[in-house]
């Protein structure tokens, strides 16, 4: 793994103290709040993994893009839907992963098994 893979391009802290974030699976998603008013959780990513590159805010992630192998993804503030993952280098978009999850069906426990 090269230093560029670990540290990312210029604009990032040179030696991260916190592991890079990893998107979560968005399977069994009940709703996707992707409108302009969708709120992004405060401190969603550690500051050392966020940088301004050109006109975009990007995140250094703890996963590799399956298309190009890069570790940089658009910050949710830079794209829509706001909770999806999109590669900064090749524009690959993972439709089954998200930076944060909306309510999941499993959150309702026994209420979704059909028993009333």
Radius of gyration (CA) equals 16 Å
Within the largest sheet, what's the order of strands? 1-6-5
Give helix % range.
under 10%
Instruction: Please state the average pLDDT score.
Output: 78
The assembly state of the depicted protein chains is single chain
β-strand percent reads 15-25%
**Large-scale geometry:** globular
- Enumerate the spans where pLDDT stays under 50 for 5 or more consecutive residues: 1-7
How many β strands by DSSP?
Answer: 6
Span between termini: 54 Å
Structural class: mainly beta
Biggest pleated sheet: 3 strands, antiparallel
Number of helices: 1
H/E topology pattern: HEEEEEE
Word description of this protein:
It is a single chain. The strands form 2 sheets. This protein has a 3-stranded antiparallel beta sheet, with no helix packed on it. It is built from 1 helix and 6 strands; from the N terminus they run αββββββ. It is mostly beta strands. 4% of the residues lie in helices and 20% in strands. It is globular. The model is unreliable at 1-7 (pLDDT under 50).
Question: In brief, what are we looking at here?
Answer:
The chain has 116 residues and is mainly β. Helix content is 4%, strand content 20%. It is globular.
Question: Topology, pairings included?
Answer:
Blueprint: H1 3-7, E1 24-25, E2 50-53, E3 56-60, E4 72-74, E5 84-86, E6 93-98
What features would you highlight for this structure?
3-stranded antiparallel β-sheet; globular; 116 residues; 1 helix; mainly beta
């Amino acid at each position: 793994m090269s230093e560029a893979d670990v540290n990312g391009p210029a604009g990032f802290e040179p030696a991260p103290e916190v592991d890079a974030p990893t998107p979560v699976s968005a399977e069994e998603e009940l709703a996707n709040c992707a409108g302009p008013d969708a709120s992004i959780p405060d401190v969603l990513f550690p500051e050392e993994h966020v940088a301004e590159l050109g006109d975009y805010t990007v995140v250094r992630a703890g996963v590799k893009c399956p298309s190009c192998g890069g570790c940089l993804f658009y910050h949710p503030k830079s794209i829509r839907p706001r909770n999806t993952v999109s590669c900064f280098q090749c524009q690959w978009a993972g439709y089954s992963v998200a930076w944060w999850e909306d309510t999941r069906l499993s959150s309702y426990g026994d209420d979704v098994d059909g028993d009333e």
